[in-house]
Design a protein that fits this description.
nine-stranded parallel beta sheet, two-stranded antiparallel ribbon, about 45% helix
Length: about 350
Amino acid sequence: MLPSSIQISGEPLSGAEVRDICRGLRDNAVRLLSLRGCRLCDRDFGRICRALAGATSLAQLNLNLGVVSSPSRIKQLAEALRTNRSIQSLFLHGSPLTDAGLALLNPALALHPALVALDLGDCMLGDEAINLICGLLPPDGAKSDPLKEGGLELSRNGDPGIQATAGLKELTLSANPGITPKGWSRLAIAVAHSSQVRVLNLDYNPLGDHVAGMLAVAVASSRTLEVLDLEGTGLTNQSAQTLLDMVENYPTALRSLVLAENSISPELQQQICDLLSEGEEEEEVAGGPGDTQERERAWEPAAHQRSSSSWTGPSDPSSQMVLMTSGLGDSLLAETEM
């Protein structure tokens, strides 16, 4: 039987449903597990973590909106991630992690051999968390190993006894207002030198024009960044002009720049959009029709990529089912299967 999906949103989970989920994970019958906003007791959360630790088919794990709600749950998830080897996309949006919680998760994230997409939006993070996250965006494409408590300080050569692990390709840090310009500047440097990151979502953070200028330099330096989301980040025409100059004068991999809900004139936004569209058209002509079709398939909206095989426990057939994933997350899964 092909691996399928368990997708439940905003529901209280019964003991029977938790048993069904754990059985599916142990039987390697689940490719995507989404429990977005679900309510369950600590004991059942621990049972699910123990089951996903040994799951070899699970590629996407969505625990958005407060499922990971306490230090004890953070520790249980970290233990599971230390053992698991298959999860490629981890969504923790809206979890009250704080810097201390991310420090608990960090060693497992840094050493996970498959993880390439991470959503830490609205997780109450600050500058200390950014220091850890930068270790997941290494210059050589392999994540550092956390030898120091709460940090990623090992040299790039690494521990000869630990296998190098891939860096992140997609990172979401939306709505973390506790991060200061100092933290964003450090992230911008890491993005500029990362050999992997393709999608960076920073929407609804109070970045302002100064941070946007640093990000423009990072985008100009990056060889891989294709999508940058700066929606609702307090930008003005000043930073938009800087971004326009960057797009107009420097060849980059950037294909999408989201600037909605900022104090930027429609004319400037349209100019940037037109230049990005021109660059993509030129790439399509140069790459040929085969390359174009592959790119369109990879970035097809998630709604069109959902598997027709969906699995849920028989205990509650009326549970609301949703899929929370990004286009890149699905394309990464497709690349792995190919």
